[in-house]
Amino acid sequence: MRFVHRTAPLTVLLSSFALTGCLGSDDGGSIAAETGQLNFNGFSGLDFRTASQSGTTNLDGQFRYYPGETLSFQVGDLVLADGVPARPHVTLLEFFPDIRSALQTPTVDTEGLRTHTRTELNLLDNGALMNMTRLLMSLDWTQGVPEDEGIEIRQRVIDQLNAALPLIDGTIDFNVPTTEFTATGTTPSPANQLLARICFHPEGDELCEPPPTPEQIQNAPERPENEEDWDPDVEYRQDLQAKRDRILEAIRTLDEIDNEDARTYLRRELKDITTTVSNGYYLDEDVANHPASDTEIKSVRVQRIGGDTALAEIEAISTRPEDVTIHAWSWQSAELDYFVSGDSGGESELVMSFRPENTYRWVRKSLRVIIR
User: Fold this and answer.
1) What is the pLDDT of residues 209-229, one digit of tens each?
2) Distance (Å, whole) CA 352 – CA 330
3) How do strand 298-304 and strand 47-49 relate by DSSP bridges?
4) pTM
5) Helix, coil or strand: residue 104
6) What residues contact residue 8 under an 8 Å CB cut-off, 6+ apart?
7) Rounded CA gap, 257 and 237, in Å?
């Protein structure tokens, strides 16, 4: 997919965004829309739209949707993604159709169980993902995106971005090679041209002014050697040069956030979402004790906090099958059946890996079985 900025065709769309407030409108009738979240630690300032909802993500990165809808995202007039399945948790990886498709194929870990985490990590080297993430991190007001904090794209930044887009040479295409996307020097990339036209300081700050030109600096008078001869109403050559240096140093470029910074940020967000999804499920018992003589089939069930358990897939292993043997499992009933097969004093851990409905993420829970 090629991501470009649009101007005139988005006028009506952006007007509707502005009218809907933060999380936006609810046009679905009497049934309340659900609330999803972009990334984990917050992502504000992105306009979103579904078939029934529109608005702007708040500081928590929240958006509204009805199950089965898809999302489009943009920052100001810059289109980022469309056709993104609306779910409780969405990340930047799902902005790209090829990555979104690859996420559906889990990898197998050393225990022989399926997991999504390795798949996610393997996809973080995608060039388009790196380009988009670096630009969005650069648009963050504080830019650093420290741990446990999200991205905040303020309206002041969006206003400047919209004014700058028609003035840059070329279009912002996330699919070009990273070296081309992040080019600086005499022929900066469209993304760096865009950043150069945005001031990340309050309106009226000196750093938002055009820098003095070399000609202005050359034509300015030299500062007198004696401080007592300085005129407070005169901008000397040294003053103008220092001012130019400060303004130019305040201009952001994509070089300030490299691919490893972007991967670190994405890994953190993905890990936090996985933890949140996992924390929503538990087994109806953590430890089971059975006498060696009791070889009847036992069951352990997956439970969901605050809702019905709805699984799409499930699998399990016994770490010591000579002591405890798995008989069967069922995603429909969210249950694992097992029986004691060892002697007194033995034990095993039954590790269950399951995928809830409406997510590619796998959750892992374990039951410790002790043989008396």
Assistant:
1) 999 999 999 999 999 999 999
2) 11
3) unpaired
4) 0.88
5) coil
6) none
7) 33
